[in-house]
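Final paragraph of the annual report: two paired records, presented back to back.
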Amino acid sequence: MNGLLIGRFQPFHLGHLEAILFGLSQVANLWICIGSSNKSNEMKNPFTADERNEMILSSIDEKIAKQIKIYYIPDVNDHNNWTLQIDSIVPKYDVVFSNDEFSQTLFQKRGIKVIPVPLRQRESYSGTNLRAKIANDQDWKDLVPQGTRNVLLKINAKDRLKIFNYK
């Protein structure tokens, strides 16, 4: 059975890693969709799709890497056709893992099973919170896997994020 997990991963953090592990506990293969893949260098989407891909792949072990495939999903600003666009990009899937109510509704309208992902410390593992911590030179390194930490340091994420005045 194949599953689908959609996220912006701005940046990829330990909550995202747990979502992947949860998904893989339910299905044999997991299609990971990097949402808003056509956006970068903006406040909500500061990292490129390729950077986010690198964060994910560098943060998982080889066994998991064999069970996942990553796809880029650009924003289309057409909610009615968004799930159909995803279907045109990724192989067949049997279930979607999502906590986003709007996404759940869109997939469920099409008769696709949606399973919520258990969330751990949502406030800590929030991309918005994490971006603010990085930009403001606060303690953030324990909130991301080592691979993501390495990517964020390599691309000098702190300087990139400072221009957005996160609070």
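The closing record of the year follows.
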Amino acid sequence: MRIGRHIWISGTTATDERSQPVAVGDAYEQACYILQKIERVLQQSGATRRDIVRTRIYLVNQADWQAVARAHAEFFSDVRPANTLVVVAALIGADYLVESEVEAYLSTERA
């Protein structure tokens, strides 16, 4: 959703265009897929990953935090949005290990 300069992308899972889970059993690959999916939505809203100011990541397995953090770091490179990582009991859909949401803010030049 975009309102003015603000963009919110709600909980995003590793679900393909046929509503099927992607990379079942692999939290790193799910995180990469999710971030690429989020980037496509941002582009449709006139934004890029550089506009993301906050991310929230929900994990089912605490042991996956380093793999998911690595995917996050690779995706953002020198961009450093505020980030929260939370371990949850479950996500909707047994095959999902990761869910992410982001907030972005466009600079005045592109608002």
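Strands lie at 2-3, 6-12, 52-59, 82-87, 98-105. This concludes the annual technical report; the extension proposal builds directly on these records.
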